[in-house]
Amino acid sequence: MNRYLKVIAMLGLGTAALSCGQASQGDKVEGFKYLLDEFADIKVIRYTVPGWEDLSLRQKEYVYHLAEAAKWGRDIYWDQNCEGNLALRRVLEQIVSNYSGDKECAEYKDFEVYAKRVFFSNGVHHHYAEDKFFPACSREYFASLMEAVGAKDEAVLDFVYDRSSGLQRRSTSSEGDIVELSAVNYYDGVSRKEVEEYYKSIELPGDPHPVSYGLNTKVVKKDGKVSELPWCVGGIYSAQISKICEELEKAAAVAENDSQRKCISLLVDYYRSGDLRKWDEYNVEWVKELEGTVDFVNGFVEDYNDPLGRKGAWEGNVNIKDHKASGRSEILSANAQWFEDNSPVASQFKKAEVKGVSAKVINVACISGDSYPSTPIGINLPNADWIRKEYGSKSVTIANITHAYDYAANESPKNMLDEFAWDEQEKELARKYGSYASEIHTDLHECLGHGSGQLLPGVSATAMGEYSSALEETRADLFGLYYAADPKLVELGIMPDKDAYKAEYSSFIRNGLFTQFTRVELGAKNTEAHMQNRKLIAQWCYEKGLADNVIEKKVRDGKSYFVVNDFEALRGLFGELLAEVQRIKSEGDYQAGKALVETYAVNIDPQLHKEVLDRYAALELKPYGGFVNPDIVPVVKNGEVVDYRLEYAESFLEQQLKYGREYSLR
After folding, report:
1. H helix runs in 345-452, sequence order
2. What CA–CA distance (Å, rounded) separates 544 from 569?
3. How far apart are CA 292 and CA 295, in angstroms?
4. Considering the chain, what percentage of its residues have pLDDT values greater than 70?
5. Burial status of residue 613 (CB atoms within 10 A of its CB: 0-12, 13-18, 19 or more)
6. Does the pLDDT value for residue 280 go beyond 60?
7. Dist CA 270 CA 245 (whole Å)
8. pLDDT of residue 26
9. What is the radius of gyration, based on Cα positions, of the chain?
10. Looking at the predicted structure, is the pLDDT value of residue 373 above 90?
11. Residue 174 CB neighbour total at 10 angstroms
12. Which of 222, 244, 268, 644 is most buried, most CB within 10 Å of its CB?
């Protein structure tokens, strides 16, 4: 549950003047076009990989095989998102590759937009809003395209145009069974009650090292009996996982150190056995490996897509440490105990001893599965609370992704800041400190927020149920917001001065109350965990601060603005809410957690919603961004690989078709 998705750069604020001496545009490549494609509500961006040429040949080979392992998991994630996705994707690949008819007519253009949306979302449900989307072209026209390339399949057509079922990838409905209503391919023939009773029967209350039961399985019912089918070699996704293991073993042969080789060996053992104790062993070793420049994530990790918060979506990430930029993260890590001790939460919910908190700034070289094309800009892992308590965690801020968002935004003539900020003072503060203050908030969120606090003895990590993801992101965001304004950051040389945090406070409130809803259809509820987190915090603080006018809604020329009037009081509200959310998680208070989310995070004011959509439409920006990977290409001379070079994609569709040809098992 510990990945961080920021939306400021995605929404087109553009790059602030990074004048703090802590960040720069040194990784920007002049003449390089970052913005590659735009369609529907999406923009596709290319990212560069700073530091690539500084790697040795062995390190580049290590990255290459880790990236190959990541790409081989692609089919898994498509299938996890919905059972019909893979069959549809293969039809789309056939049409895009082989159709020779009129590609300039309106219906083909509509089909092409649909195809791009499916490729971007790894299926038929919006990657963020999770609602099913449909082609603008008619069923008859779609059928004619299929027939033209020899791919006629009524089952695929039914899947594409069915508006009666599977309308949400992960249902958040308060009416009905969220397991049965969700389109994700994690369950078959079982109800929520049956799933919860099944796991209750196998979990061990009070286990100091609880297994993440259900993380790597599908729950099914056969002959009236509920059971699990594992995702492992010999189980579901056996062929794909075997390919992943092959590439991981090649990577191990050229790893930077013995600890990395041990990590990979444990991960392969886990993939071959499906044993979640092996997964825990791998994560413990992975947390301890801090010496290498190259690192990776590979596995069934985050549970956001599961309505019950148990099943891990497959993802891959291969990255290179930015040694220079990691300085600020290392300072935060070194002072983790101070931040824990001075947190505004009750003492019984704090860790007496913070262990193993490590943080760094990275540049990704490959993203896959749940991290592709849309990727977080910060990650904190592992997710098991007991490992975090006893061994610590790794936190990363992904610099080249954040910067690519900014560079792509600068290629657009319009931005959100000019439209939604109240006055020139607010805009100037954002331009001066905005991007950097946002990165610091990400560092605090990942490095310290997710790693802070503790559960009381006997409280299950799954006690928050379907609200766990939103509440955990709320907790980490509040931790970051509270400390962004602390004089300690200026003392440590992380914040440039005592006012820099105000840019992030203004941006967070503006976004949480208003601008983030450019990504939600009018009349729909707010369902995505990160968006719920931001609305919960902003709405709660707005309402609690009304009497003192802490946050003010202002109207000028018929346009609404949300302005922070008292930054110190707002920090106090962040601290008050942090204390309550930590209490809820530590005590496993499901009803209180549910009340917070349902009261403050779900419903959107319809008038404000319409206004923000109308104003945003006039800017002609795209609210969502995602990426294409650079290809890592071996350079061969006289039969030997002498180097690995990066080649940058020229087309979003071409990368999708290439991955379909090279990393899919028919």
Report:
1. 385-390, 399-410, 416-420, 424-443
2. 11
3. 7
4. 96
5. middle
6. yes
7. 10
8. 57
9. 24
10. yes
11. 11
12. 244
The tokens describing 423, both together, are 């006055």
CB burial of residue 571 (10 Å; 0-12, 13-18, 19+): buried
CB atoms within 10 A of CB 415: 18
List 560's β-bridge partners, or say none.
555
pLDDT at 324: 87
**In whole angstroms, what is the distance from residue 489 CA to residue 486 CA?**
6
Task: Tell me which residue has tokens 């009070």.
Answer: 206
DSSP letter string, 214-239 = TTTEEEEEETTEEEEEEBSTTSBTHH
The answer to whether the bond into 382 is cis (omega within 30° of 0) is yes
Average pLDDT of the residues in 334-342: 96
Q: Which residues lie below 8 Å from residue 358, measured CB to CB, with a gap of 6+?
A: 287, 290, 333, 392, 393, 394, 395
Which residues, in sequence order, are CB contacts of 374 under 8 Å at separation 6+? 120, 127, 128, 624, 625, 626, 627
Residues belonging to the chain? 666
Please give the pLDDT value at position 477.
97
Residues 6+ apart with CB under 8 A from 139: 157, 160, 161
Q: What phi-psi label fits residue 188: left (phi over 0), alpha (psi between -120 and 50 degrees) or beta? A: beta
Picking from 434, 405, 407, 439, the residue whose alpha carbon sits closest to that of residue 420 is 434
Residues whose CB is less than 8 angstroms from the CB of residue 638 and which lie 6 or more positions away in sequence, other chains included? none
Q: 643: helix, coil or strand? A: strand
Which pTM value belongs to this model?
0.85
Are the C-beta atoms of residues 207 and 195 closer than 8 Å to each other?
no
